[in-house]
Structure to design on (193 residues):
């Protein structure tokens, strides 16, 4: 079984993130051995057009059982499981100082798409695992590249798409603690698929 863990805000620092906790945590997770699971990680730049091209290409090339996008959020203080993504409202400039045309992800698509994965169940599983990390569920991935990339995947297949925000390193978790939390997220999601 292949799982793609994609990190769309991992091409070096951006904004206040001089170290991208999401990419560091995903790299740490890739070192783990999860029985029966092949983890494929990708780092994609914070560029709308690149995301719009590379995400569908990855789905096509890998044909994964599960796609989990992982991003960093300065507002997060727990592993934040995003239940849905939005199609419009993308007015924040990417690292190339561009926005998508019409501030939209997929022309003609629904305004909002929800993952078929029950994030409340994943949250409960993470919080009941005995790990130091805690999880929460969110319905607002932020109308930036995280939300945008998630919508692209949900538009491809809602039944096996997910997005997880992690807090910056040390606020409050280490990269190892975040990787342990992501492993529990994977196990819980695989139980639903």
């Amino acid at each position: 079984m292949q799982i793609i863990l994609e990190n769309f805000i991992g091409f070096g620092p951006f904004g206040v993130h001089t170290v991208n906790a999401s990419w560091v945590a995903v790299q740490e997770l890739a070192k783990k051995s999860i029985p029966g699971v092949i983890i494929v990680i990708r780092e994609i730049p914070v560029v709308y057009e690149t995301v719009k091209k590379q995400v569908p290409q990855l789905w096509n090339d890998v044909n994964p059982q599960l796609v989990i996008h992982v991003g960093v959020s300065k507002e997060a203080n727990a592993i934040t499981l995003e239940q849905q993504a939005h199609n419009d409202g993308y007015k924040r400039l990417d690292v190339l100082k561009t926005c998508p045309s019409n501030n939209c992800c997929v022309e003609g698509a629904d305004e909002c798409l929800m993952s078929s994965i029950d994030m409340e169940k994943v949250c409960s599983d993470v919080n009941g695992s005995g790990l130091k990390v805690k999880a929460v569920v969110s319905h607002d991935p932020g109308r930036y590249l995280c939300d945008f990339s998630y919508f692209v995947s949900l538009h491809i297949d809602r039944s096996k798409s997910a997005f997880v925000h992690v807090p910056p390193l040390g606020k409050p978790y280490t990269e190892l603690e975040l990787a342990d939390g992501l492993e529990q997220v994977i196990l819980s999601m695989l139980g639903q698929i």
About this structure: Residues 2-192 form a domain with the Aminopeptidase fold (CATH 3.40.630.20). The two ends are 12 Å apart (CA to CA). Residues 119 and 161 are 11 Å apart (CA to CA).
